[in-house]
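Propose amino acids for all 311 sites.
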């Protein structure tokens, strides 16, 4: 079943070709010229129980095992085409073994979307930014040797010498940009995003995992919107005690008063197994204020009942 548009309230900003627009519908981001950091999206596939990975199953921890959808693969390329760079944690990179266990380069595979990015949007090669506070990278992985992408590393001042030594041994050209933010083993994400925008001109950033990285971004109010593929399966608990199958939100914990809300931007589906949601960060909601406002609505108002009924 091909991708079907069910609902959209998206901005219509990007100059999509007729073929791409016919497949996806309108697409755009809110204006973000005045932001001091990139506009940050995230993309995950998850099962009906919210879990995103068969993490404990060696060689099968990647999102492809959860998705198994050609529409999801196309949407991943679609999102990558519209972002200046992609951000992911080093653990997520290592858990994606690829077909030959050399890893993925996380590049756009769809020829039409790759041409659209290059020729229409005039964007450079995809920047794949790996964040690590510990180092210990495997520079033989495909990511660091692919002509299709430009690998970057985001790390700390203490870890940079170790990484640079590894790069010098594994890659004679040393052609990997290292961005240094923070000390010890902790990368200051808020400061890092400001540097990516102000020093390197990255205006849109796509977070592709993992849950720990995404959870920290969300907890620091650094997520602007989410793309979620819902694969209509239940992953269940781990088969190995002590190795949890994660959700996109890591170990975040909220109360009803602090829980962040999102507003719906679009819904797509591909029968019979997949739904695709896009929603935008709103933050905590004040229901007392909203109930007071809803009581003032005139009878018949479309806003009078919905807020009051939320529990």
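Proposal:
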């Amino acid at each position: 079943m091909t991708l079907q548009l069910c609902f959209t309230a998206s901005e219509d900003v990007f100059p999509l070709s007729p073929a791409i627009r016919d497949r996806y519908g309108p697409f755009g981001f809110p204006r973000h010229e005045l932001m001091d950091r990139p506009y940050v999206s995230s993309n995950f596939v998850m099962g009906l129980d919210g879990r995103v990975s068969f993490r404990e199953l060696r060689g099968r921890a990647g999102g492809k095992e959860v998705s198994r959808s050609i529409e999801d693969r196309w949407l991943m390329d679609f999102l990558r085409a519209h972002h200046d760079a992609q951000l992911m944690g080093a653990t997520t990179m290592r858990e994606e073994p690829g077909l030959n266990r050399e890893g993925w380069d996380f590049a756009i595979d769809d020829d039409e979307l790759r041409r659209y990015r290059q020729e229409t949007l005039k964007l450079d090669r995809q920047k794949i930014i790996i964040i690590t506070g510990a180092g210990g990278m495997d520079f033989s992985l495909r990511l660091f040797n692919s002509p299709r992408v430009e690998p970057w590393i985001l790390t700390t001042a203490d870890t940079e010498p170790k990484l640079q030594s590894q790069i010098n041994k594994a890659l004679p050209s040393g052609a990997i940009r290292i961005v240094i933010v923070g000390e010890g083993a902790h990368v200051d994400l808020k400061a890092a995003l400001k540097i990516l925008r102000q020093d390197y001109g990255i205006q849109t950033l796509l977070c592709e995992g993992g849950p720990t990285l995404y959870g920290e971004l969300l907890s620091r109010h650094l997520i602007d919107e989410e793309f979620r593929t819902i694969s209509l399966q239940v992953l269940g608990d781990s088969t190995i005690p002590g190795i949890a199958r994660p959700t996109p939100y890591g170990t975040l914990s909220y109360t009803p008063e602090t829980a962040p809300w999102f507003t719906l931007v679009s819904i797509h589906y591909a029968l019979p197994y997949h739904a695709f949601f896009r929603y935008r960060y709103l933050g905590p909601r004040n229901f007392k204020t909203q109930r007071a406002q809803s009581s003032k609505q005139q009878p018949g108002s479309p806003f009078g009942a919905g807020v009051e009924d939320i529990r």
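The first strand starts at residue 4 and ends at 8. The two ends are 36 Å apart (CA to CA).
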